[in-house]
Design a protein that fits this description.
By secondary structure, the protein is mainly alpha-helical. The protein contains twelve helices and five strands.
């Protein structure tokens, strides 16, 4: 008997190209709205007292935030590969803008000369440097290819990133931004480099040296004319400086403690009534904990965790190495700012003046953060998943 062989049709693979990371967009909008609600609650009393308008900070931040979301959506529709043609220009522009802060175009605010006035525009050029180091180092790593494992390549990459970090410190007197730029540089090199052991050894040695330095400082110095050394002293013993440099830290801890687990209720903070100076800026997390409790603080951190997860997902599935490295740099930037801000509020590290992304008040920060989110969405838009589709 002859058996008839039935032809079995194999499932064909259809490429899905219309991917858009709506989850990332949703968490960005959610964090922005949460930040605006907390900004109004935190700043309304002082805004009414100083400007006669309890919505003074809220209206400015809301206008900038929603405008920047639209800009981010526009950036997401642009092919991110176009940046490869302007990496040199972007790097040079970041360096020149920071140098211009030392000229009459620079502006001093809150005792620090970090702002640049260019006609009607006023911004911190160190924020441009963060995007520049992310884009430029990603492009350089891709061009180096397998040469990334050589010492020469490491020195070129580390030197390029460190140069912008140095300018951020020397020209804008912004040590925290310089540290963030340097950490982004090291993070990108670590991700691209095939060997892990040298980085772990260097990190271990660095941590040991920092611990030894802090121990020597705490045992040998009681006062210092350097405000950065005083910040370390305040961090180690904030109660000894409660009426001076440690006042903001102590009041922020009072706010967190008085909030308990469930908080006083939205709008019912006591510490925001002048006790925590500039509470709408880098200390806004303390007011979140006072009004919404530890539970509210945890929910906010979970939102940031999900934001970082979406960035990690995009970096893992990016269509090429350039896109993957860019999103990885954005991931490192956001993660560092969240960690630094929360650690300062909880007095786990010296005060750095780093804002909480998408939550703290600040137009410059929102503009450049949303630009980075637009780049991440642009990379995500070019992800191509393969889905099996059976054709009958």
């Amino acid at each position: 008997m002859s058996r008839e062989k039935k032809a079995v049709k194999k499932p064909k693979i259809k490429k899905k190209t219309d991917y858009y990371d709506y989850s990332l967009l949703a968490v960005i909008i959610l964090l922005t709205c949460f930040g605006l609600v907390m900004l109004y609650s935190t700043s309304s009393y002082m805004a009414e007292l100083n400007y006669g308008d309890d919505m003074y900070y809220f209206k400015k931040q809301a206008a900038i935030s929603f405008g920047c979301i639209i800009i981010a959506l526009g950036i997401s529709q642009i092919d991110y590969h176009i940046l490869t043609k302007f990496t040199g220009v972007l790097y040079g522009m970041a360096a020149i803008l920071m140098i211009l802060v030392k000229t009459p175009l620079g502006r001093t605010a809150n005792g620090a000369r970090r702002w640049l006035n260019l006609g009607p525009l006023s911004f911190q050029p160190s924020e441009v440097a963060k995007i520049a180091v992310i884009v430029c180092l990603s492009y350089m790593i891709v061009n180096m290819g397998r040469n990334i494992k050589t010492l020469k390549a490491f020195m070129i990459l580390a030197g390029s990133g460190s140069a912008l970090a140095f300018l951020a410190y020397a020209c804008t007197d912004n040590l925290s931004t310089a540290i963030i730029i340097f950490c982004i540089t090291m993070g990108l090199i670590f991700i691209a480099h095939p060997k892990v052991k040298p980085f772990l050894i260097a990190a271990g040695v660095g941590i040991v040296l920092i611990i030894i330095f802090v121990m020597i400082l705490s045992s040998s110095l009681e006062t210092s004319s350097s405000f950065r050394l005083r910040r370390i002293l305040v961090w180690l013993h904030p109660e000894d400086f409660a009426s001076g440099d440690g006042y903001q830290t102590i009041q922020a801890l009072y706010a967190i403690g008085s909030g308990g687990f469930l908080g006083r209720g939205l709008g019912n903070s006591i510490q925001k009534l002048g006790s925590v100076p500039e509470a709408q800026n880098d200390m806004i997390f303390s007011i979140v904990c006072e009004e919404l409790g530890i539970l509210g603080g945890i929910i906010l951190l979970l939102l940031f965790a999900y934001l970082l997860y979406r960035l990690f997902f995009i970096a893992q599935n990016a269509p090429d190495l350039f896109g993957s490295l860019m999103v990885s740099g954005i991931f490192i930037h956001i993660a560092l700012q969240v960690i630094f801000n929360i650690a300062v509020v909880l007095n786990l590290m010296p005060n750095t003046g780093v804002t909480l992304p998408l939550v703290s008040y600040g137009g410059t920060s929102i503009v450049f953060l949303m630009s980075e989110m637009g780049l991440a969405l642009s990379v995500a838009r070019q992800i191509k998943f393969k889905e099996p589709e059976r054709l009958l």
